[in-house]
Write the C-alpha cells for this entry.
Amino acid sequence: IMAMPHMMIVPAGAVAERGQLPPGTGPYVLKAQERGVALEFERSEHYYRPGLPRTPRVRMVAYADETLRVAALKSGDVDIIEYVPWQSMGMIEADPTLKMDQTFGPFMYLTFNGQAGPFTNPLLRQAVAFGVRRDDVVNAAFFGRGAALGGLPIVKESPYYDEATANHWTYDPARVKALLAQAGVPGGFSCKLLSNAQFTMHRSTAEVVQQSLASVGIAVDLQLPDYATYTTLGNRGQYEMALVGNVSDYNDPDGLSSLIDGSLPVSFVRSFNLNIPELHDNLVLGRQEADAAKRKAIYAKVVQIALEKAPIVGLAWRAQAYAMKAKVSGFASLPGQLTFFSGMTLEDTSIEG
C-alpha cells in the first residue's frame, strides 16, 4: 500500500488554491493544463533517479471518442493511447507501425442490495451466479477480448489462483432451478438491474445478463440511466442488483477487501449493506499474517465463503490495453489489477527517431 500512487508525498502546506498548478514530486512537473483538454509536463530537475525520465516532455490529451483516440495514434498525433477499444485491437495488432500491450486485470461483476429486496437471500444471489452465460458477455461486450470470470477476480499469475474455484459459477439451469425451489420461489422471480446507457460495455453486459437470466426463470428489468445518475443511485443503495466494472486495489488477495467486505463504508464498488462477518474476519486475518503458506490457507477460506455467500458475482475479465507507435520503448502495461497505474512507466519511456 505504501508503494501505491495513493501514498504520494507532498510538501507541508502545499494545498494550492483552485486554479493553481499543484506541486510535483515525481519524474515530471506539471507546467500547463487546459481543463478537459490537455495536461503538459516537463522533466523534473530534482527527480531522485539519475537519467530519468528519459523523455523530456509529455503532453496528455483527452479524447472523448474512442474512434478519434485510435485515429490520433494511427495519424501520429499521439504516440500512446490508453483504453484501446476492443473492436480495434485486431487492427492495431496487424499494423506493423503499431504495437499493443494488454493484460487481464479489470473485470465486470454484479453487486446486490443486502438491505432490502430479493437479494437479501443468498440463495437468490447464487441463482443469479449460476444463471449467466459468461462467454456471451465476453463476445457481446468485448468482442471476444476477455475471459469468463466464474469466481473471485484473482489473476492466473497469482500464487493464490485456483483453477477450480476460479470457474465455480458456470451456466447451470438445473442448479438455478434447485436454488429457486430452495428459496421458496420455484416459479422464478422478478428483479431490477442497474447499469448505464453511456458506456457500451456496461449496456451490452447488462443485456446479456438479462437474456441469460430470462432463460432460467429470472425476469430482469434493466435500468439504464446516464453514468452520473447510475453512480448516484448505486452509492445511495437505490437498486436491487447492479453491474459494475472495476479492478481490485492491487494484485494481492487483500486488494479484494474493498469489493467484498461489507463492513466498510457504503460505496458502489461493493454490495449495499451486505455484511458477512465471517468474510470480514478472515480478510483481517490474512492482512495480519506474514507466513505465505498460512496466508494461502486463509484466502482459500475467503474464496469459499465468497462463493457460498456471493457478496459479488464475477462475470468477465476484460482485456485492458495500451497501444503505441512501434518506435516507443520502455512503456508497459503493469500486470493485472495494476494496469491503470501504468503511467508510472512513463519515466522509462523513450521514442526513437
Observations:
- The first helix runs from residue 66 to 75.
- The two ends are 38 Å apart (CA to CA).
- The chain has eleven helices and twelve strands.
- The longest strand covers residues 98-112.
